[in-house]
Amino acid sequence: CESLETRVLLSAITGTIYDDVDSSGSKTGGDNTLGGWQVYVDLDNSGTLNNKADGTPEPSAFANAGGDYTINMNAMPTGL
User: Fold this and answer.
1) In this structure, is the dihedral angle defined by the CA atoms of residues 56, 79, 62 and 11, taken in order, positive or negative?
2) Cα(10)–Cα(12) distance, rounded to whole angstroms?
3) Do residues 60 and 39 make contact, with C-beta atoms less than 8 angstroms apart?
4) How is residue 39 annotated by DSSP?
5) Quick check: 53 and 77 in contact, CB under 8 A?
6) What backbone phi and psi angles, to 5 degrees, belong to 19?
7) Which of 75, 40, 76, 34 is nearest to 61 (CA)?
8) Which residues are 38's β-sheet partners?
9) What is the pLDDT of residue 66?
10) Residue 69: which of 24, 31, 18, 27 has the closest Cα?
């Protein structure tokens, strides 16, 4: 019996933060982007941005003026 283990490694998480004023569930013309907001990957499910066990902060990024952000995941170890 053979098995194959596959791991998917993320290089980045990207997105746009916006105020869904029309409650459509997607960004439409009347929605306002939210620049300057911080987005993070909550690795320990604590509900807050904090440090990992090795003392480095959880991955995070600030949205630009258009609400767009990119969280670099290249430095993350596999298996998380």
Assistant:
1) positive
2) 6
3) yes
4) E
5) no
6) -90, 110
7) 40
8) 62
9) 92
10) 18
CB 41 within 8 A of CB 58: yes
Residue 10 has pLDDT above 70, yes or no: no
pLDDT of residue 30: 87
For tokens 């604590």, the residue is: 46
Q: What does the pLDDT look like over 24-77, one tens digit per residue?
A: 888 888 899 999 999 999 988 999 999 888 888 899 999 999 999 999 887 555
Structure tokens at 6: 């596959």
CA distance 79 to 60: 19
pTM of the model: 0.73
Nearest-5° Cα angle at 49, 45 to 11: 80
Tokens of 1: 């019996």
